[in-house]
Structures are given as structure tokens and as C-alpha cells.
Amino acid sequence: MKNLESTMAGTVFTVNVAVGEEVEAGQVVMVLESMKMEIPVEADTSGKVSEIKAQVGDFVNEGDVLVTFE
């Protein structure tokens, strides 16, 4: 299992993947909004999404787990 963590505090603006989906390294899996800016969150590894820990509208802090990959 590999976790994708937030690199900053913000609100989840979009979730671009679903559980069970295969993703490639560099693919945008989520977009955060902070101070009216949209910040894409990219997968740092290829893999299958096993769990999505944050949903649209959730506030996340730096270091929070956003997505878990198998």
C-alpha cells in the first residue's frame, strides 16, 4: 500500500479518480483549492486506487492522506 499525502492545506475541489481505477504516475487524482487557487495533486506512482480518504468539500491539512494505492 502506498499513500498519497497532501502537500498543503486546502479544500478538496475535485476528485478525479474512483476506487478500483488504475492510475499512472503524474496523473492528476485530485484538485485542492487554497486562497482561490486550484492546485492539482498528481499521483507520484502508478497503481490501483484502493481507497479515497478525502471527498469534495473536505478540508485537508498538509500531510493528510488523500488516496491509498495498492
Automatic annotation (TrEMBL):
InterPro entries: Biotin_Carboxyl_Carrier/Decarb, Biotin_lipoyl, Single_hybrid_motif. The keyword Transmembrane helix does not apply. CDD domains: biotinyl_domain (cd06850). The keyword Hydrolase does not apply. Residues 1-70 form the Lipoyl-binding domain. It comes from the Bacteria. Keywords: Biotin. Signal peptide: none annotated. This is Acetyl-CoA carboxylase biotin carboxyl carrier protein subunit. It comes from Psychrobacillus faecigallinarum.
